[in-house]
Every structure is written in structure tokens, then in C-alpha cells.
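Dear all,

This email documents one entry for the complex benchmark we are building for the journal club exercise. For each entry we list the sequence lines for every component of the assembly. Then comes the predicted three-dimensional structure of the complex as a C-alpha cell string, followed by one or two observations. Please use this as the template for your own entries, and keep the labels exactly as they appear.
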Amino acid sequence: MTEHQGTPLVEAEGLRKVYQPSGFTAVDGIDFALAPGEAFGFLGPNGAGKSSTMRMISCVSPLSGGSLRVLGLDAATRGAEIRARIGVVPQEDTLDEELTVRENLLIYGRYFGLPRAVVRERADRLLEFARLTDKAGEQVSALSGGMKRRLTIARGLVNEPEILLLDEPTTGLDPQARHLLWERLYQLKSEGVSLILTTHYMDEAEQLCDRLVVMDGGRIVAGGTPRELIEAHAGREVLEIRVPPGEQAVTAEKLQGLADRLEPLPDRLLLYTEDGETALAGVHVRGIVPITALVRRAGLEDVFLTLTGRTLVD
Amino acid sequence: MPALLLLERNLLIYRHTWYLLLAEVLEPMLYQLTIGVGIGQLVGHVPGLDGSGPGGGSTGGIGYSAYVAPALLATAAMNGAMNETTFNMFAKLKLQRVYDSILATPMTVHDVAVGEVCWALLRGVLVTAGFLAVVGAFGLVQSAWILLVIPGAAVVGFAFASVGLAVVTFLRGWADFQFIQLAMLPMFLFATTFYPLGVYPRPVQIAVECLPLYQSIQLIRLPALGEPGPALLVPVVYLLLMGALGLRIALPRMQRMLLH
Amino acid sequence: MATATVRPAAAPPAPHSGPPPALREFGYRLHRYRRTWRGTVVISVANPLLFLAAIGAGLGKLVDRGGSGYLHGGSYVAFFAPGLLAAMAMQTGYIEAAGPVFQAARPQGSYRAAAATSMEPTDILGGHLLFMAFRLALSATAFTAVVAAFGITGPLRALLLVPAATLTGMAFCAPVAAWSVTVTRQARLNGVFRFVLMPLYMFSGTFFSTDQLPGPLQGVVACTPLHQGIALCRSIVAGTATAGGSAMHTGYLAALVLMGWLAARRTFTRRLNG
């Protein structure tokens, strides 16, 4: 664990979630802590236990074991108090389709017990923030995916939360909408809001997270800053080569010893090394002519592949 | 009271769709015209209240329309409330997932349940009040006691809204709504809505007297026909107990359903 | 780059192999119905029987005690049963032609898949209408069997009631299908049911003779298809059917089916090929 500045905002020890009646263990004893002002990420494939963890932090899912303190309060007993001080952006936009854009913010603010005047003032500000001011009177169903997402984030901010939880914030959005969303999240971070997010996009985790943990099968398999994780688990560079199908195994055999580690995937071979170009020269020396070859910097995708032997998005 | 915030949400929506309430007033109105007035001309007068009320000895009976109207009022309150906690709430639970976002705020499942029951009850009262105005316009008001219909509708609304809340936690899909219809329709048709208890043989009479709609109709019909009295306590206690039982069953089930 | 093995194209199906296209749509509907028929029992069988028992038999006791003139000495239940049969045919017809057609015509609906094959929109329409007629005949048979079992009508008359009720239902199915294929919002379907079908049900003579209505209204009601269907069914049960009267009612209903079908051919083609 990295050093904490002050008391952690969220602190989990041995956190577990077992669903009944199936008995399925979604989260299997995890520890983590969120420092104030930090952007913390859970990275992992679908079914890794990220969303279950998020639901427990947002106090809408009872713990099955371990302890969880949010804002210094026990999540098991003081849910309502905690929920009053955090913002939640769930994986699916649970916007109220029967209300207009502005009404969504107004009524959500009222659920927090905020006076009408305060909510009205905040709604206008948040519509501005989400760039939805000119859509204020529209029905939610008329919004694009990116707009709905921004509205859901605006809604999560209506109580001026100390922590904002985002579950897969950009899944299903086009690249332009994603970048706009990231930019909004940077702004929040710069204003001192702590972020917790889950993602299965490594570029998103690298862009947004100060620190992250990699989850797989309900457990945390590694943690640290994106850079630390890449250095520890993937090395500096990756050489990706494609060979004709059927020659994969033979080629892998021939390439033994050329790189620190060799990872065969169904459609290509990955060679982890400190120097990709040298490795590529070595490939040619061994008489292999790949269909395509690419040298790139190692990323979080590679970290995940190394740790679990599986790709993140399949 | 946080539960009332849910009322605020629903009112906000009804600002756009208030005409749906009119549609709910229309249905009892049609029954009133067809069966009350139309068939009423064939039936003539209904002999008294068949001794089921304290003033059962009244002579000459009452007009058929005036006999049917309070039953339709009670049915309107029942349907108004129960549609809300079954049909509309099922959509909110399963399709729109409205409560997922609400429960992410300091609102609790308890607040949601109480809020929805209050709202359903209010809708039952509104539909009944709308229909009462129509009945008044038809000149079918027998007595000033008819104003007791409004608190009566609130009690009926509470009972059926709570039961609806329990029922909705058992529904698996839209196809299950036919089972609700299968219970509600016979109750509507046979619980002395259109003809008095005396038509049935005694064992059937006892079975009908146990129906919640029969109790609801009694609660509305007795004062509407100008015969309020301690006999009203029976339906009031019956319906309050039924509502409490509904909530008792619904709350833990909703808790498990929403906070999994 | 990618391994692009080209698969040989499948031979195009012969245009006239298998059953006629409209029967394929009918077959599809029938296949679905085999899984969902239980859900329709409540609405199309239990519902009318409950009304028959409560209003016909129960309320009928009060009516018969009153001894009303126009029942011509007959019982109220014998007056009510054929009216209810026609009204239920209307309701079943509407339910079958509104919701399913609307659902199937949506961009993700089953008509879209069928229209992408060699079937024409008119085939799809024909097959679906055929299925609706099947559903109507089935419900009418179940109801009529009960009515006959209680001796409200004789078995021979009951045999005539089934086609009469089916025709009444189809007089709604065809025009409603022509309309509902163009509808884009579900709420419209419910609105028409509540504000058009329910009043029709209540005032077209199901529960009481339209003679009781105010004069001008009688003329309006006489023109409604439900009233024509009720008159046809009632004359069969009462044994008062005349050749001229029956021909008029039948012709009126058949004309509606025909006009609805012609209109639906146009709207189906426009929506599915548009």
C-alpha cells in the first residue's frame, strides 16, 4: 500500500460479498483504502466483483463479511448518513425516464432532504457543468448516451458529495463522448472531489486513476499506480507479431528465449521485453516472417494479461 | 418525512399525465351509466339493504342506481390504489429501476414503501372524489353522510395499496398479472357490487362477506345511503388489519429485493 | 491479414417451395400461441364467463323479478349472453390486432424479420389475420359451449353463433390492424381501448336494449359494428333471425372486414417496405 495522507475516506478489510440463494461469491475478502483527494480505480473484466464492491461502498448492498468504513462511518449500520455524503453514478443510467432533464436533478436533490431553493440553484449549475443547459426541459428519453451519462454524473453531484463513485463511467460511449466525460472528471478532481471508479478499459484507468487495484474472480491480484503496475508486471515494451494461423505454435517454439516472457494469444504472439526493436530484429534472424509486427509501450492490458493469463476485454 | 418526497416525485410526473386519472374516473362512470341507469330501468328498486345494515328495515327499497353507485366508488378506490402498487410499481421495479437511484440517496426501503402506499392511497381518494362529483351531478346523493366516502376511500386505498405492495414482490413477469385479474374480477362482480347479498344462498353469503371488496363496499355504501353507525367499525378494522398485514409481508421482501 | 475463407453461397430457395407465404406467418403465430395460450385463457374465457354468471345470472334474478317488457318473456341471461359473446369477440379482436401488430411492426419486431425474407407485407398481413380469425373462433367456441351447456341456447343455434361472433371480431381486427401497424406509441392503443372500445361495449346493447337510449343516440349506436354483431348473435339465440336482417348485419360486418383488409394491405406495405 502507498502512504496515506490523513485518515482514509474509504477503508475495507477482508470485504466479502456472497449472493444468496445461489451462494455465489462475488467479492472474496479484499482490502483497500482511499486517501482524500485521490482517484482510485478498480480494474478488471466483467464479473470480477467490481460492481458488487461499488454497491457495498455506496451502502445499497449489505456486506457478507469483513469491515467497511466510509467517511469514518461503519457502512453496515450507518448507510443513510453515508449515502447523504457520497455521490453515485451507477453502471446503467437509472435516470427517471418519466421526468425531464431538470426535474431529474430537482427531485434527486430533494431525496437528500435539500431545500427546494438550494436544489434549484444547484440544478442550474450542474446543468451548466454537464453541458445540458439547453436540454433542461427535454424528456430524458430524447438524450444521447453521452448526455444521459453526463446527466447521471450531474445527478450524483447534487448533494455536493465528498466522494463520487463511478461504475464503468464510459462503457458504451463513442470516443468523443468519452473524452468529454474524462475532461469533466478531471475538473471534479481538481476541485478536490475524491473519485472511485471501476473500468475494464485500461486507457481509462491510465488516464483517470492515481492508484488502482486489479481485480479478478473477486480478489485483488495487484495494486499501485498505473506506472508501478506496468513496471512490476509487464516490463517496458511489447512486440506483437501475427503469423499465419496454424503456425502459431511452431513460431512460439522458435521464439523461445528471445524475450523476458512470451504470451501466445489466439490471434497473435506478445513478446515482453525491455527493447522491442532488438527483439524484432531477433525474430527476423530466426527466419520468421510475421504478417504484421508492432512495437509498443506496455500498458495495463498487459499487466492484466500477465497476472491472470487472460485478456481484459474479450 | 422522507417518504413524502416520493409523493413529490409522483406528483411531478402527474403534472404531465393527469389525464390518466380522468381515464380511471371514466370506467366507473361507464358502469354507472350502463348498469346503474341502463339495467336499473329493468330492475326498478332494490329491496332495502337486506338487513345487512343497521337500518335494514327501511321500506320500499332504494333506486338501483343509488345502490350501485357506492359500490363503484369503493371499486374505484380499490383499483386506483392497487393499480398503482402493482402495475405501475412493477414497471418502476423491473423496467425503469427507479428505486435503484432513489436508494442511493439517504432514502430507505421503508421510505419507498410508505411513500408509494401514501401515493396509491391518494390516487384512490382522488379517483373516488372525481367519481363522487359525477355521482353528485347525476343526483344520486342520498345523504350528507356521503362525505364519509372520502375518508372511507382512504382506508380502502390503504388496505389495497399495501396488499398490492406485497403482491408486487411475488410477480415474476407481466404474465403474472392475469392472476391478479383472476382474483380481482370475480371479486368485483360478486361482492354485492350489482346486487344485494340476498341473491346468494347462506354459505355463499358468508364467503362473500369475507371478501375485502365486500367490506370496502359496506364501508362506502352504508354512509352513502345515509345509514352510518357502529357497524362501520367492522370494515374499518378489517381493512386496517389487512393493510397492516400487507405492509408486514411487503417490507422484508422489498428489502431483500432491492438491497441484494 | 485475416483468414478470409469464402464460403460458397447457399442456393437461393425456390420461390414457391413450402407452404404459401401467408401460411408461414400463420404457422409462426400458431407456434407462438402454443407457448402462450394459457395466458389468454383468463381474458378470453374466464372473463366472459364471470360476467355471464354475475350479470346474466346474478343481476338477471333482479331483472327477471322486475319483469321487463322487451325480454318477451325470455330470461335476462338469454338476452345478455349473445350480447356478451359479440362484445367479447370485439374485445378479443381488438386485443389481438392492436398489441401484437404494434409490437411486430416496431423496428425490432417479428414483422421485420419476416419482411426481410421472400415474404411480402401482404402475406404477413394475410397470415396474421388468419391467426386472429382462428383465435376468435376458438374463444367463441369455448364461450358458446358453456352457453349451450347451460341450456341458454340449443346446440344448432350455437353452431351458428361461432361464425357470427368470429365475423364480428374480424370486423374489428382488419381495420384495427390497418391502424395499429402505423402506431408508434403504445399509449395510443390503451387510449383507444379505454375511450372507444369500453363505451362501445357499454352502450351498443350488450347489457340493455338500445331502445332505452335517447332517440338520436339510438341512430348512432345502430351504425356501430358491435351493435350489428350483437343484433346478429341475439337474433340467432332468440330465434328471431330473418333472411333480410341477417343478410344486412352480415353484409355490414363483411364490408368492414373487406375495407379493413384493403386498407391494411396499403398500411402494411408502406410501414414494412418504407
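Observations: Chain C touches chain A at residues 1, 3 (CB under 8 Å). Chain C has a mean pLDDT of 84.
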